[in-house]
Structure to design on (45 residues):
């Protein structure tokens, strides 16, 4: 990418950003689920 011109982001960059965001959201939800499960287990025990 040239500093003087700002061309539209290539499809690869957009796809990569979307994939990264989706993976991050999935990982975050997974970690939250694990935390909730661990908390429930601790409360039950």
């Amino acid at each position: 990418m040239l500093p003087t011109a700002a061309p539209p982001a290539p499809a690869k960059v957009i796809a990569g950003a979307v994939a990264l965001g989706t993976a991050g959201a999935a990982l975050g939800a997974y970690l939250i689920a694990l935390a909730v499960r661990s908390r429930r287990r601790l409360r039950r025990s």
User: Anything to note?
Assistant: The CA atoms of residues 31 and 37 lie 10 Å apart. The mean pLDDT is 83. The helical segments are 11-44.
